[in-house]
Design a protein that fits this description.
Blueprint lengths: L1 H7 L43 E4 L5 E3 L3 E5 L7 E5 L5 E7 L2 E8 L5 E6 L2 E7 L8 E9 L6 E8 L11 E3 L1 E5 L6 H5 L14 E7 L6 E4 L4 E5 L8 E2 L2 E2 L2 E5 L5 E3 L10 E4 L5 E4 L11 H4 L8 E4 L12 E2 L15 E4 L5 E4 L17 E5 L12 E2 L2 H4 L8 E4 L5 E5 L2 E6 L4 E4 L15 E5 L11 E6 L21 E6 L2 H6 L2 E4 L8 E4 L5 E4 L2 E8 L9 E6 L4 E3 L9 E2 L14 E5 L5 E5 L16 E6 L9 E4 L3 E2 L4 E7 L8 E7 L2 E3 L2 E3 L2 E5 L1 E2 L6 E5 L10 E9 L2 E2 L3 E5 L9 H5 L3 E2 L2 E2 L18
Parallel strand pairs: 46-56
Antiparallel strand pairs: 1-12, 2-5, 3-4, 4-11, 5-10, 6-9, 6-12, 7-8, 7-10, 13-44, 14-15, 14-49, 15-18, 16-17, 18-19, 20-21, 21-22, 22-23, 24-25, 25-26, 26-27, 28-29, 29-30, 30-31, 32-33, 33-34, 34-35, 36-37, 37-40, 38-39, 40-41, 42-43, 43-44, 45-47, 47-53, 48-51, 48-54, 49-50, 52-53, 54-55, ...
The structure holds 2-acetamido-2-deoxy-beta-D-glucopyranose (3 copies).
């Protein structure tokens, strides 16, 4: 209903400046390659820097009888091979972690069987989805092979619709060599490598994301949503590479999603009605990933809407975008998005254009809301947020958490504050100790430590990592070898805690761009990141490939907030990965209770050079994954604030003192920021019979902002798998008519839901 009203509101295209009222901005309609008029058909064949291509004429490829060579300049190496007979095959041995097969497709092609190392892994269809013949199409890809030697065999199955004759055509292989860490990197960690599972923690590499996992959010018991930037990913949709996908947490299959705009460095959150929004991004990047190939439009003001998708088949799940009608009031690249106590999204900061480190020219030191709010005289326009002027330059992707009194904790660069959004007032906190910068491109990670009735929902934040590199230095004065910080700091956010100030601790290793993941046990596991350098690519001295950072940290570390100072970090039994996870890496808890680790792509476009684009997924399994676990057999789909509901459980204990009920938000993860990640322990009662548990919903939307959540029962430190619930009434966030009716101009763009452009007169002035 609300959505319908919003959608029927009319706005116009962005004006280039307030004085030029209604000039269509061509970016919204897509670009073509510079100097060309007509978009060309996209050709998937692509050899990332560092990968190796083997043409069909390579002597290393062994063909059975029945293959012919066909010469034509439209194909890789000016030729391809084809076979018509059933059982005709080709065999190729390669060394690496992935392989792609390319060939022409047309209506004569049939099914081919793909064997890897002697095992049938897939039947692929060589026929084009439409009747037009296309060349250099991707027939098959796999990116999660173990490092080393493998064989691939393609066999003509000679079946196609309505016929038992079919052709198999083959043009080229592209091999992903895979990057093994050097002996030096591994020797930094004296712990056993990933393949040796210790009896405690385990790390398994399984699955690949198909698009780089720059942004990650769990959307249902069976799926996570992955959002990337526009680039040459192997997963395709609508005849071009995809830059978003749904990842099946159960069988590791990926389903591409269609996006209109470039989502490079967008942020996201669920709203109170379970809809996920993904906002901001980058303009169309010219040249190799221009819209002629990919069809993307400017994403700087984008609002991408993903309606709740809980079916296992993910059928019909799609991202909706209508840039003409629904967009932010100002452009934002690298903004943090937070769900607040009224179930709407607060969108904090960002840069008005893509680039690298923020500066006064590109800074967007404002907040805005979705749906927009007309508060503090803003009429739906961005509201000035001077903290982001005071924290230049390293202040993108601010660290932010909604606190249990409804205020917002924000940290950027070396500063921290509490913002009361209902009063538009700020309360400054003690600065980050030792001059450590904690936000992009000196990214630290942070969590809000568990809230519980026992601690009276007293908030305490933990921030780990970062760097003290001078953020006024140009890139050529910064090096990928500048050491990162090992500092972790925490502060209780009440008067007493604030006057005590930050408590300083040290991780076993320095980390830039780490990911902190809250476990239902209340512990925090820290993974990913670099020992040296800063975030981003292509900016500093001593780049490794294009990476601004080096010395990947390969061993996770566990942090126990309730242990005494000095003994909170532990790496005992932690496996060491062999996959560097640097810029554009992510990690999240899954509903099963293990940690999904993905991404790493410090590159402009897909690359296999060190440090390349990483599609492999790893699963970090805490010891409890292999223990007998409590179970939630049945529970409600919805829990209102303060409501008592019953769960049917399998507990193996009748002692309340051993039980905890954890309500979690796994967060929207990107750039080391785990926005909305949260753990609230709930009140509960264990009735006599022991297989039912009465739990009480969180007291208010301030303690847990209304929206989706996950409930785990934790018995003696062993959590159950999670129950997916809606916390609160599940209604749409409130829509503020005063914010919709008026149009305003912020920077050079019209407001979000402008319906009257005569109102576009200039930037709204705010009190600060
Ligand atoms: C994975 O599961 C989904 C949903 O249950 C199913 O549609 C899909 O075919 C499965 N894929 C594989 C590779 O098993
Ligand atoms: C500010 O950042 C933008 C984007 O990275 C860059 O183009 C511009 O040169 C920078 N301006 C200054 C004054 O450094
Ligand atoms: C949730 O609210 C948003 C914002 O008003 C809206 O766009 C979306 O369609 C709503 N979702 C559902 C499922 O109604």
């Amino acid at each position: 209903m609300v959505a319908t009203i919003l959608l029927t509101l009319i706005s116009t295209l962005a004006a280039l400046s307030p004085s030029v009222a209604i000039v269509p901005e061509p970016a919204w309609n897509g670009h073509t390659t510079p100097d060309s008029v007509t978009p060309a058909t996209f050709t998937p064949y692509y050899v990332p820097p560092g990968a190796k291509s083997y043409d069909s004429s390579s002597p290393l490829i062994h063909y059975s009888k029945g293959w012919q060579e066909v010469f034509s300049s439209a194909h890789v190496g000016n030729s391809f091979r084809q076979a018509n007979q059933l059982g005709a095959y080709l065999l190729f041995t390669f060394s690496g972690t992935g392989i792609e097969a390319f060939g022409p497709c047309d209506e004569l092609q049939g099914m081919a069987a793909v064997y890897i190392d002697g095992k049938l892994v897939r039947m692929v269809n060589g026929a084009c989805p439409n009747t037009r013949r296309l060349v250099q199409q991707r027939l098959f890809w796999v990116f999660d092979l173990s490092p080393g030697k493998h064989t691939i065999k393609l066999v003509n199955a000679a079946v196609r619709a309505g016929s038992n004759h079919a052709t198999l055509s083959f043009d080229a292989f592209v091999v992903t060599l895979g990057q093994a860490p050097t002996a030096r990197e591994l020797s930094r960690d004296s712990l056993p490598p990933a393949t040796l599972q210790t009896k405690s923690w385990a790390l398994e590499q399984k699955g690949s994301t198909g698009v780089n996992a720059m942004q990650l959010v769990v959307i249902s018991p069976s799926h996570a949503l992955i959002v990337d930037k526009v680039e040459h990913n192997p997963l395709t949709i609508d005849g071009h590479p995809a830059w978003a996908a749904l990842y099946n947490l159960e069988n590791h299959s990926v389903t591409p999603l269609s996006l209109k705009s470039n989502s490079f460095c967008a942020g996201g959150t669920f709203l109170s009605n379970g809809t996920l929004i993904n906002v901001g991004g980058n303009p169309v990047v010219e040249d190799k990933t221009s819209a002629a190939d990919f069809g993307d439009v400017n994403g700087l003001q984008a609002i991408r809407i993903f309606q709740p998708c809980i079916s296992q088949s993910v059928e019909g799940c799609a991202i909706y975008e209508n840039p003409q009608r629904i967009r932010m009031a100002s452009p934002r690249w690298y903004s943090t998005v937070l769900r607040i106590d009224d179930g709407s999204a607060m969108i904090i900061g960002g840069s008005k254009k893509g680039g690298w480190i923020n500066n006064a020219t590109t800074n967007n030191p404002t907040i805005e809301y979705y749906p927009p709010k007309s508060i503090h005289g803003s009429k739906g326009l961005p509201i000035a947020f001077p903290f982001l002027e005071d924290t230049l330059n390293a202040n993108l992707f601010p660290i932010a958490f909604a606190l249990p009194d409804g205020t917002i904790f924000v940290a950027a660069n070396t500063q921290a504050m509490i913002y009361d959004w209902s009063k538009n007032s700020a309360h400054h906190l003690p600065p980050i100790p030792n001059g450590i910068r904690v936000t992009y491109p000196m990214a630290a990670t942070a969590v809000l430590l568990p809230l519980s009735p026992q601690n009276h929902y007293t908030p305490e934040v933990l921030i780990c990592g970062g760097s003290n590199v001078d953020d006024r230095k140009p890139g050529y004065e910064i090096s990928s070898q500048n050491p990162a910080s090992a500092q972790c700091i925490r502060m209780v956010l009440n008067d007493e805690g604030i006057s005590r100030g930050w408590e300083v601790e040290s991780m076993p290793e320095a980390r830039l761009m780490p990911d902190a993941v809250l476990l239902p046990t209340g512990q925090v596991v820290i993974v990913n990141g670099a020992g040296t350098g800063i975030s981003g690519y292509g900016n500093v001295r001593n780049q490794v490939g294009q990476s601004n950072a080096d010395h990947p940290v390969l061993t996770p570390v566990l942090y126990d907030p309730s242990a005494p100072h000095g003994s909170r970090f532990s790496r005992s039994g932690m496996p060491t990965s062999n996959i560097p996870r640097l810029y554009h890496s992510v990690a999240t808890l899954t509903p099963r209770g293990d940690v999904m680790i993905a991404g790493s792509n410090p590159n402009l476009d897909r690359s296999e050079l060190k440090y390349g684009t990483e599609y492999r997924v790893e699963w970090l399994r805490p010891p409890y994954m292999s223990m007998a676990r409590p179970q939630i057999v049945k529970g409600p789909k919805q829990v209102l604030f303060g409501q008592t509901v019953e769960l049917t459980v399998g507990l193996a204990t009748k002692s309340s003192s051993k039980i905890k009920v954890a309500l979690m938000d796994f967060g929207f993860v990107t750039h080391a920021v785990h926005a909305n990640s949260r753990l609230v322990y709930l009140d509960f009662k264990l009735p006599e019979d022991g297989d039912r548990l009465s739990i009480v919903g969180p007291p208010s939307g301030k303690v847990y902002p209304p929206g989706p959540g996950w409930i785990h029962i934790v018995v003696d430190g062993v959590p159950s798998e999670a129950l997916h619930v809606m916390i609160g009434d599940g209604k749409d966030p409130q829509v503020d008519d005063a914010a919709l009716k008026k149009c305003g101009v912020s920077f050079s763009y019209c407001g979000t839901f402008a319906d009257d452009d005569s109102q576009c007169t200039g930037e709204h002035k705010h009190k600060s």
